Amino acid sequence: MNQIIEQLMKHRSIRKFTAEPVSEQMVESIISAGQMASTSSNVQAYSIISISDAQKRAKLMELAGNQAYIAESPVFLVWCADLYRLSEAAALHSRKADQYADSVENLIVATVDTALAAQNAAVAAESLGLGVVFIGGIRNHIDAVAKELQLPELVYPLFGMCIGYPDQEPMLRPRLPLSSVLQHNSYDKQQVTSGIAPYDQASSAYLLARSNGKTSVPWSVQMSKRLNEPVRLHMKSFLQERGFMKR
Amino acid sequence: MNQIIEQLMKHRSIRKFTAEPVSEQMVESIISAGQMASTSSNVQAYSIISISDAQKRAKLMELAGNQAYIAESPVFLVWCADLYRLSEAAALHSRKADQYADSVENLIVATVDTALAAQNAAVAAESLGLGVVFIGGIRNHIDAVAKELQLPELVYPLFGMCIGYPDQEPMLRPRLPLSSVLQHNSYDKQQVTSGIAPYDQASSAYLLARSNGKTSVPWSVQMSKRLNEPVRLHMKSFLQERGFMKR
Hints:
homodimer, alpha+beta, NADH Oxidase, four-stranded antiparallel beta sheet, 12 helices, 46% helix
């Protein structure tokens, strides 16, 4: 254990923020730390759009699922996987028509690059006493979001991120047993699924405590509900229309 | 600035390790820190396979591009995006045939979850004085790697990660100008591409220094070469065969 691991182990998403502003300098230092994350072959395939315009915030809140904290957080960032910059850089030396930006591989590369940088940024923000929450809901109406932000081809909004000073102290959510997640030398289906039952218990106990006895839906029941919902089925056609994953 | 941001700003990939072993306890603490990263709707859609078997290491090294450090690093982890556990958990309460695990959305969710956890793990490892490097080459022959690791459907190897005590002190690689990466309220193509020319200069200077004057290929030339290479075009059919991104 050390100070850094201690901080990582204390992470919880924050969905209620004080009115205290977060300076632009802080945002820049958070993003700079994000940029230092590893990047596949140095492609740095991401762009971050900070939304300070109140009208635009309200619009994004509506599109992403109406969570008040999207409008209210001091800082709201939209993390975009971005192959546009790369494609323009490459076009200085070769024809765009010869590029493979449209491969599934490059979609994966851009998505991973963005997530690595965002997680570094989240760690940096928390080290400054700030709290964060990722907003996957930004993909609920991804086409409208992309238009609102004037994203060009080969750029897609991956997730949002609210940042601010915490005005709540949520419990830590337990995670799957380590043995269900960490394998040795090959994948052992039995070991992976053996974590489900104990985690159902642990997550039920957590929910019960967090909701003051009101709910305790086991994890596997939540996951069943989630996996049986036809959520964001527009992603495939949206990404293809934007020049991604054609081959 | 604080100790944590200072560490993040000093990240560089390590490709040469001392023989000093990394304890299993350390690996577990690194993975536990990884697990505390944010996860989309708590799906925790990843599995990590630690490869200690020397023969398996040699095989993976061969498949991933023959970098010696894959065989030689004290720890080698394969980070897998994993919807199998989730699908099995959901199947306790509903029919597998009704699940949407095969959507592009769920591929993105699993890929992001894996990357967030891996970046947290990288930060934890570095806080312990260790060095890491991500290995995208694990996708070079992804089908053979999946077979080697006995991965079931709905699991794919996203990247490898070498971990060990650094036996080199590489220079920090400069990143794109902040102004090319951080936008305000909407995407400004002009601003995004304006970073290319100055970064070509900065990255050339870096390469020149690192190679003792031997090479200074500008970033945009490297990117042109990279984007014009038909690399890992098997990803689309591989992922579909494994049950991903069918709709």
